[in-house]
């Protein structure tokens, strides 16, 4: 009687045993490569940790808000998971690893690299924004206080991109996911387009800096001093005392005159010289005016005659005071007027009086 042999199913312990046997066999055949790979991986880990520590030291130095500080800040957020997986991926091709181990390392490295790239991108973007908000004598306090909302928006954007990249590398069809995210983003954008428009306008003000807090600006028929640049609107204190609030987008759509950034103040001083002044003396009047203007540290832009009127010969004076201080310019103009009158009086130049002078001829007998 013959006995039929039936093959017994493979038990989990047998499968684990085969895996361990394969691992021991691979280790015994490639032990030297494994040692070299472990040493190289350890060296890569030490180098990447040293770079991270170097970035942390740069962040602690004074003046770490520049471009170098932004890069250093990103380096300090390098995770240990990325360092370990990057080191393992770097030596994978030199140790002839089994297929299962190789696929596992590549999968872990793909995940770590995608999320690490998102972290670096987030820190660079936020660091660049904070760099502008704290520069120029802290003129961006309002936007600096809004960094919480900006951090959420930036984090959501970069980590969504990282997730899509991971799924795409794993062979998942992400076309539908990307389309869904696009439709959802469009819906959210349309629902809050006014808020986002003002938010992006605030960021434009932050980076382009057409004006800063404390600047005197003029737009349309309004003028005043910028008190606060917010996430939605800008508050301007008018010279007449009231506070004006205008949306950031509306404000950027207007022509803005920034009086604080002027490099000089130009003032006009129209005068009239009596037409009975002798021509020889009249020709020296412009030079007299230039000398007086320069004596008060102003730069004459024009000193000449601009025609004749009923009162006399029109003298047009325009001069520039350096800087943007109107109180200094106005006080200087007052002194120029007084000195001009004294100089003309000494030279015998008479100013024309306003009004019309009538000359009546005597009646003939």
Concise account of the structure shown:
The protein is α+β, with helices and mostly antiparallel strands. About 60% of the residues lie in helices and about 15% in strands. The longest helix has about 40 residues, at about 100-140.
Descriptive terms for the model:
elongated; 5-stranded antiparallel sheet; alpha+beta; 365 residues
General shape: elongated
Number of beta strands:
8
- The fraction of residues assigned to DSSP E strands is 15-25%
> Main sheet: which strands, in order across?
4-3-2-1-5
Mean pLDDT value: 77
* Main pleated-sheet profile: 5 strands, antiparallel
Protein structure class = alpha+beta
Radius of gyration: 39 Å
Question: Low-confidence parts lasting 5 or more residues at pLDDT below 50?
Answer: 1-14
Helix content: 55-70%
Count of DSSP helices?
13
Ends apart, CA distance between termini: 177 Å
Query: H/E order of the elements?
Result: HHHHHHHHHEEEEHEEHHEEH
Structure description:
It is a single chain. The chain is an alpha+beta fold. The protein has 13 helices and eight strands.
SSE arrangement:
Elements: H1 12-29, H2 31-60, H3 67-76, H4 80-91, H5 99-138, H6 141-145, H7 147-169, H8 175-191, H9 193-208, E1 216-219, E2 222-229, E3 233-238, E4 243-247, H10 248-252, E5 256-258, E6 264-273, H11 279-283, H12 285-295, E7 299-308, E8 313-322, H13 326-347
Antiparallel strand pairs: 1-2, 1-5, 2-3, 3-4, 6-8, 7-8
Helix pairs in contact: 2-3, 2-4, 3-5, 4-5, 5-7, 12-13
């Amino acid at each position: 009687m013959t006995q039929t042999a039936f093959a017994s199913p493979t038990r989990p312990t047998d499968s684990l045993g085969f895996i361990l046997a394969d691992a021991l066999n691979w280790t015994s055949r490639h032990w030297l490569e494994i040692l070299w790979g472990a040493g190289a991986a350890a060296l890569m880990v030490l180098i990447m940790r040293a770079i991270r520590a170097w970035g942390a030291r740069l962040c602690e130095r004074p003046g770490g808000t520049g471009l170098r500080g932004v890069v250093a800040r990103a380096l300090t957020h390098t995770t240990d998971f990325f360092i370990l997986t990057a080191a393992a991926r770097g030596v994978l091709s030199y140790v002839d690893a089994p297929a299962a181990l190789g696929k596992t390392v590549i999968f872990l490295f793909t995940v770590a690299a995608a999320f690490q790239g998102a972290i670096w991108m987030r820190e660079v973007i936020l660091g660049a924004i904070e760099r502008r908000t704290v520069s120029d004598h802290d003129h961006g306090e309002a936007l600096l206080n809004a960094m919480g909302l900006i951090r959420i928006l930036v984090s959501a954007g970069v980590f969504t991109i990282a997730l899509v990249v991971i799924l795409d590398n794993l062979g998942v069809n992400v076309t539908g996911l990307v389309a869904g995210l696009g439709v959802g983003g469009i819906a959210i954008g349309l629902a809050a387009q006014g808020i986002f428009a003002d938010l992006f306008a605030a960021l434009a003000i932050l980076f382009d800096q057409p004006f800063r807090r404390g600047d005197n600006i003029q737009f349309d028929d309004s003028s005043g001093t910028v008190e606060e640049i917010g996430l939605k609107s800008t508050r301007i204190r008018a010279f007449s005392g009231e506070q004006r609030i205008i949306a950031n987008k509306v404000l950027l759509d207007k022509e803005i005159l920034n009086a604080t950034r002027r490099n000089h103040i130009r003032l006009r001083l129209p005068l009239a010289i009596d037409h009975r002044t002798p021509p020889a003396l009249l020709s020296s009047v412009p030079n007299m005016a230039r000398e007086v203007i320069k004596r008060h540290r102003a730069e004459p832009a024009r000193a000449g005659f601009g025609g004749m009127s009923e009162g006399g010969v029109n003298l047009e004076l325009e001069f520039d005071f350096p800087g943007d201080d109107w109180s200094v310019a106005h006080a200087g103009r007052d002194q120029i007027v007084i000195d001009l009158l004294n100089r003309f009086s000494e030279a015998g130049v008479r100013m024309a009086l306003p009004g019309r002078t009538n000359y009546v001829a005597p009646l003939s007998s």
